[in-house]
Amino acid sequence: MPPTTDLNYYAILTAMLAPAFFLTATAGLLTSANARLARVIDRGRALMRELEENEDAEDRAVIEQRISLQRTRSRMILRASQLLYVAISCFVGTSLSVAGDSFLGHRVAQLPTVLAVLGVLSMLAASVLLAREASHAVAAVNHEMDDAYAKANRRNRARQPRQ
Question: Does the predicted model carry a pTM greater than 0.90?
Fold first, then answer.
């Protein structure tokens, strides 16, 4: 075996490391997205129970808005997860095409680069969606705190004797 062949294998393995690091990062984001989706689903179920038990029209309207926001959040997380799965596929494809390129006589020389770019773009888009979803989550919590505060003040004023 000529020494250049050993160098080719080393170059191939080295080129396959970058997609492996991206795979690890993507898997971490996917784990986070799945945990967030689980929290959104739990919150949505709690809101559905709250809606079922509540008869006040004003409260029901607020709860329905909260449910709508949870639906929006779940769709955003779903899209982000799908993009992360695309990224994983692209990074695996990058590794396979790097390995296969040298065996195929460099016939698919641009394929690893194209797949890597698609993977990174998918990861970027997913990260933007997850950032937007996090903003929605914070907004939802702030609205709920504001509503609870206003409701508590109304009850407190109703209990105080009039002078």
Answer: no
